[in-house]
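During the second half of the funding period, the structural biology subgroup turned its attention to how the target accommodates small molecules. The most pressing case was flavin-adenine dinucleotide, which had performed well in the primary screen but for which no bound structure existed. We therefore specified the complex as follows and requested a full 3D prediction, including the ligand pose.
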Amino acid sequence: MAESAAPLLATLGAIVGEANVLTADTDIAPYSTDWRDRYRGRPRAVVRPGTTAEVAAAVRCCAEHAVPIVPQGGNTSLCGGATPHEGGHEVVVSLTRMNRVRAVDADNATLTVEAGATLASVQQAAADAGLMFPLSLGAEGSCAIGGNLATNAGGTAVLRFGNARDLVLGLEVVLADGRVWNGLRALRKDNTGYDLKQLFLGNEGTLGIITAAVLKLFPKQRTSATAFVGVGDVSAALGLLRAMRQALGDRLTGFELISAECIALTRRELPAMPDPLPGHAWYALVQADDAAEQSPLSAQLEAALADAIESGVARDATIAQSEAQAADLWALRDNIPEAQRREGPNIKHDISLPVSAFPAFLDEAKEALDAAFPGLRYVTFGHLGDGNLHYNLAPPPGTRGEAFIAGQARANRIVYDLVARYGGSFSAEHGIGQLKRDELSRYKSALEVELMQRIKHALDPEGLLNPGKVL
Ligand SMILES: Cc1cc2nc3c(=O)[nH]c(=O)nc-3n(C[C@H](O)[C@H](O)[C@H](O)COP(=O)(O)OP(=O)(O)OC[C@H]3O[C@@H](n4cnc5c(N)ncnc54)[C@H](O)[C@@H]3O)c2cc1C
């Protein structure tokens, strides 16, 4: 430990308890790298507060010592947002000990929960109250609700319920100087000036530390239907999306697109995964849910799929016959990122476009990328219903991962220039972190970047909150 760090660490120890100030290499290792192992940092310490007052005091202490802070939840960021830099200057503030449910109000359909609760535990708390919290994503067992809100996470139910931002009524936030903003209001209508919580939703730890939130709950969905559908191409998948919307209305919760390459890769890396409908180029995973117990949902989905096959939009389909079968289909989808991680380095693009633009975009992008990187493999999947695909590139067989990653900047330019030309976004739901910081200044207008910088300066004038991320 550097001599000058001792007073800081002693004060932090007095605030959160010495056992919750980690400095040993083995203790800080899990907080020092990201889920994909693409970034490695070295924090001065990891601090694990147990209350909002402790977060506030720890932030004040860091501010007094001019020490930068990296807020961290479940550390599942896919763009290095929660990874400290090298150099041992920063303190990671991990929220995972703050995982209590503070209040459930079933009549108001709200849940007040602390930021470190895992998303899965938030879903469970809602279910225990006879209600439902709809945010759902592959990392839900380990990501924290504070991280979900700080990245405005999307996931697999956005089509019906919106992004994380749409599921929040109030926030409690520790500001850069250690003051606590209590905005934990549980109101669906509140036009009393600027909606400040929106600044902190998607702030990626750069404007304040979210310590608690009031979340919107929804009626429990008592009937569900899940189908896996083979389609010939992405245009056909769009036709199927329209047909499902028409047939199911707002009971259509999710519509995921999966390429055959994704399924082959996932089954190679995780052989227990199912292969529900072999022989098609593309697949759609369709999820529909209804709050009514006696709902004809399954029969309606079956009829709509029969029509889609009859009209040539779909080629074949299988409907899950039990909750276990539906869970298997979702496990196949949710494990694509894990299979990619196991296979080795790859280049991820989390892009969004007007959904109608995808067929032309995918053709044009493939043509340009094939010319630049012969033999490239495309691992394309994601939330087609939301106009959001994970357009991931994997190295040709036999290519070393490191050599492939060296081409990342060139690949990004091809993909993101094209995304911009089609009116899309280079980050649909994962955020900016450190991975896409340079893209932000390239693709946002100078005015938009200036406004963001002004907001950052107003809320964090010393630049102590997650420096080097986003801006
Ligand atoms: C297998 C897998 C599947 C995924 N699927 C999806 C998906 O479908 N949709 C999607 O949107 N994302 C997805 N992600 C990305 C990631 O899980 C989400 O973005 C998640 O919301 C991050 O939560 P976390 O608690 O792990 O945050 P972390 O990784 O700990 O932090 C993420 C960012 O938020 C900041 N932060 C964390 N907590 C706070 C806080 N309390 N206050 C202020 N700032 C904070 C951090 O500084 C960092 O910048 C996936 C990731 C994995 C590994």
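Two results from this model are relevant to the next phase. The first strand starts at residue 21 and ends at 22. The CA atoms of residues 86 and 209 lie 22 Å apart.
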